[in-house]
Specification:
Largest sheet: 5 strands, mixed
Helix content: 40-55%
Strand content: 5-15%
Radius of gyration: 24 Å
Strand order of the largest sheet: 2-1-3-5-4
Number of helices: 11
Order of helices and strands: HHHHHHHHEHEHEHEE
Number of domains: 2
Amino acid sequence: MELISFLNNQFWGDSSYMVLLTMSLIMILWNKKKNTRGKIMAVYSILVLLLVIYNPLVAPLGLRFFAEDRWAYMRIFYLLPLMPVIAYAVTDYYADTIDITEKKERKIKFLCVICVIIMLCGAAYGSNMYIKADNIYKIDDQALTISQSILEHSENRKVRAILPNNENIVYGIRQYTGDIVVAGYSDGICDIETLDAAEAAQDFQYLVIRKEKELLCMAERHAFEYIGETEEYYILSKTEEV
């Protein structure tokens, strides 16, 4: 249930799109017209939500398939035709309520209202997906610092790094360069045992950890060297490689 709660909070945000989807499904199914395609799409969406996404039996199996990465597992929402369902419901309602002979102004007003509603449902500026970047690449400043530090130290070779499970940093690095491969996430690293487990599970040359002196000292005793830092993270390299 914790995984389902995580997916729900991260994908739906303030639940505005969940409300839109629910209203769209009701409108499509309630419509007495014989719109077979719309009803098939609506029934499919309901089955995906109930039997796959919000099924507590399926979630653990799916998470195992995605190597215990909850952010990767969120791709299960690709199965849900969110925008097609909403678009179909709006188009269906438009066709039923506005006659083809109606004045052009009324049609434009209707479409403007729908567009405003959809735009207001998106909360990018109020969520952690929105960041104000001061660099020319328009990515998270910490992602840029991490990328440049690793690339400079590795002399622009293709390397593998354990990064914090922070989507702004991970996506920013992927956008900036293809030479840094994400080998895993460092959030669970808190002592020698968890660091050993990370090394046993993945082959990597660089490690980015939370900016805590204890973690830094532990990693340096474990054959890692400090090469840089950001506001929140230390950037380390394996001393025996690179």
